[in-house]
Amino acid sequence: MEQYKGIVKTRTPERKIMLVVVTGIILFLSYQMRNYLYMIMAVVMMTAVFYTKEHIVDKKGVHIVYNFFGIKIPYTWTWDVITIVRPDYTKAKPNVLLEIAKDVTIRGFVFKKSEVQDVMDFIKRMNPNIQVEDFTEEEAARAEEERKAKMAYAMQRKKAEKKQKNKKK
Questions:
Q1: Stated pTM of the model
Q2: Which of these, 6, 26, 83, 99, could form a disulfide with 55 (CB 3.0-4.6 Å)?
Q3: How many CA atoms lie within 13 A of 141 on its CB side?
Q4: Distance CA 167, CA 126 (A)
Q5: Is residue 38 part of a domain?
Q6: 36 near 48, Cβ under 8 Å?
Q7: Worst-scoring range by mean pLDDT, 36-40, 116-120, 122-126, 163-167?
Q8: Three-state SS for 149?
């Protein structure tokens, strides 16, 4: 079965230990001061250590699988509800952020540069009606340069017009 797993940030063991220690201190201090609201917040923060998620693209659709205390909670978009897919080569460098949209909702899946084209081809095969903007990194960089040049030109024109108005006064 063809399946692609996205890259998801995970906490290092040091950070997990630090989170448990800090929330334990907050829990203890809030108990000493009889501040029950902070106790509840500390317990909720402590549970974050046991939370993970996965991004998966397969034949059924795109999935975000949340894992909390060993309980897997899948959140799936099937291929018939996805409307557009486009890569973003700048936000997740050196990897590529693949933005997958359903109506007005967008989910970002991070993949290795070597995998992105395969994932986009796979998505095209799964549903040819999905709009896949499969431009390359070079094309994206060129479009970004053109956009910046247009913005710079517009700013220069605006300054020149403002200067002329000030001269007339």
A1: 0.71
A2: 6
A3: 5
A4: 62
A5: no
A6: no
A7: 163-167
A8: helix
